[in-house]
């Protein structure tokens, strides 16, 4: 029989990157898995880095954030291999619909996976579990590759859509000042036209006043003659011219 501390160390050694010195350092701080789980649950958001500063060995090296995060996931995650479990359930249900004998094999593999407390990074690592053969492990790896490809495509599409939306916002923000400039320009033109029309009205009124003054002055200068007086004046001028012509003619004859 093993004591609780020894079983705890054996359990911690299942993690990647874990050594005997690191496991013993953790057990010195937390003597049982239940004490460690309680501390991780009470730490809240800082649970992943709760064990990062534990000193290991004679050189007092830090345990590190990577192993601290792995231990947090090990003792707090209810389903460390959720994807593998969901795919096994899917294949088992398909086998049930086909009434295939593989349904028993998938059921046994699923039970074995659920009893394993540590996260598995690939289907190949499932070979250590019971009822997992090379064919089933390769099926999980293919499914995992498809899943990662789909997630990568979704991430790229999301990044592209976000970039295009930012570009559209930039174009709109660039167009707004142009529209404002156009509005200001139209307002300036309309104000200039209004000023010009106002000045034109003022000049027209001034010109009209000047024309009226000139017309009144010209009217004052003109001689207004009645028809009878005009006829008399013409007759007098004609007679005077005739008399002067007769005098000039007489003087010319006398000289000859």
Automatic annotation (TrEMBL):
<dbReference type="GO" id="GO:0000727">
    <property type="term" value="P:double-strand break repair via break-induced replication"/>
</dbReference>
<dbReference type="Pfam" id="PF14716">
    <property type="entry name" value="HHH_8"/>
</dbReference>
<feature type="domain" description="Crossover junction endonuclease MUS81-like HHH">
    <location>
        <begin position="80"/>
        <end position="148"/>
    </location>
</feature>
<dbReference type="GO" id="GO:0031297">
    <property type="term" value="P:replication fork processing"/>
</dbReference>
<keyword id="KW-0227">DNA damage</keyword>
<dbReference type="InterPro" id="IPR010996">
    <property type="entry name" value="HHH_MUS81"/>
</dbReference>
<comment type="function">
    <text>Interacts with EME1 to form a DNA structure-specific endonuclease with substrate preference for branched DNA structures with a 5'-end at the branch nick. Typical substrates include 3'-flap structures, D-loops, replication forks and nicked Holliday junctions. May be required in mitosis for the processing of stalled or collapsed replication fork intermediates. May be required in meiosis for the repair of meiosis-specific double strand breaks subsequent to single-end invasion (SEI).</text>
</comment>
<keyword id="KW-0255">Endonuclease</keyword>
<dbReference type="GO" id="GO:0008821">
    <property type="term" value="F:crossover junction DNA endonuclease activity"/>
</dbReference>
<keyword id="KW-0378">Hydrolase</keyword>
<keyword id="KW-0234">DNA repair</keyword>
<dbReference type="Pfam" id="PF21292">
    <property type="entry name" value="EME1-MUS81_C"/>
</dbReference>
<dbReference type="GO" id="GO:0031573">
    <property type="term" value="P:mitotic intra-S DNA damage checkpoint signaling"/>
</dbReference>
<keyword id="KW-0540">Nuclease</keyword>
<keyword id="KW-0479">Metal-binding</keyword>
<dbReference type="GO" id="GO:0003677">
    <property type="term" value="F:DNA binding"/>
</dbReference>
<dbReference type="InterPro" id="IPR033309">
    <property type="entry name" value="Mus81"/>
</dbReference>
<dbReference type="GO" id="GO:0005634">
    <property type="term" value="C:nucleus"/>
</dbReference>
<dbReference type="GO" id="GO:0006308">
    <property type="term" value="P:DNA catabolic process"/>
</dbReference>
<dbReference type="GO" id="GO:0048257">
    <property type="term" value="F:3'-flap endonuclease activity"/>
</dbReference>
<keyword id="KW-0233">DNA recombination</keyword>
<comment type="subunit">
    <text>Interacts with EME1.</text>
</comment>
<dbReference type="InterPro" id="IPR042530">
    <property type="entry name" value="EME1/EME2_C"/>
</dbReference>
<keyword id="KW-0539">Nucleus</keyword>
<protein>
    <recommendedName>
        <fullName>Crossover junction endonuclease MUS81</fullName>
        <ecNumber>3.1.22.-</ecNumber>
    </recommendedName>
</protein>
<dbReference type="InterPro" id="IPR027421">
    <property type="entry name" value="DNA_pol_lamdba_lyase_dom_sf"/>
</dbReference>
<dbReference type="GO" id="GO:0000712">
    <property type="term" value="P:resolution of meiotic recombination intermediates"/>
</dbReference>
<keyword id="KW-0460">Magnesium</keyword>
<comment type="similarity">
    <text>Belongs to the XPF family.</text>
</comment>
<dbReference type="GO" id="GO:0046872">
    <property type="term" value="F:metal ion binding"/>
</dbReference>
<dbReference type="GO" id="GO:0048476">
    <property type="term" value="C:Holliday junction resolvase complex"/>
</dbReference>
């Amino acid at each position: 029989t093993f004591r609780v501390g020894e079983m705890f160390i054996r359990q911690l050694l299942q993690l990647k990157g874990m050594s005997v010195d690191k496991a013993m350092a953790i057990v010195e701080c937390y003597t049982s898995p239940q004490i460690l789980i309680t501390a991780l649950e009470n730490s809240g958001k800082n649970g992943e880095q709760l064990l990062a500063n534990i000193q290991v060995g004679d050189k007092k090296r830090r345990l590190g954030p990577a192993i601290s995060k792995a231990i947090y996931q090990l003792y707090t995650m209810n389903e460390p291999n959720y994807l593998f479990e969901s795919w096994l359930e899917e294949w088992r249900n398909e086998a049930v619909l086909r009434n295939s004998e593989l349904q028993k094999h998938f059921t046994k593999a699923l039970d074995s996976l659920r009893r394993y407390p540590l996260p598995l990074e690939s289907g190949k690592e499932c070979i250590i579990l019971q009822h997992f053969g090379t064919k089933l492990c390769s099926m999980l790896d293919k499914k995992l590759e498809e899943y990662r490809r789909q997630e990568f495509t979704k991430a790229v599409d999301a990044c592209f859509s976000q970039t295009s939306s930012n570009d559209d916002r930039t174009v709109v923000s660039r167009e707004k000042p142009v529209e404002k400039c156009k509005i200001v320009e139209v307002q300036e033109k309309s104000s200039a036209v209004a000023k010009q029309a106002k000045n034109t009205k003022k000049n027209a009124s001034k010109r009209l006043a000047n024309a009226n003054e000139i017309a009144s002055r010209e009217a004052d200068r003109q001689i207004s003659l009645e028809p009878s007086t005009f006829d008399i004046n013409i007759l007098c001028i004609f007679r005077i011219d005739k008399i002067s012509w007769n005098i000039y003619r007489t003087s010319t004859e006398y000289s000859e």
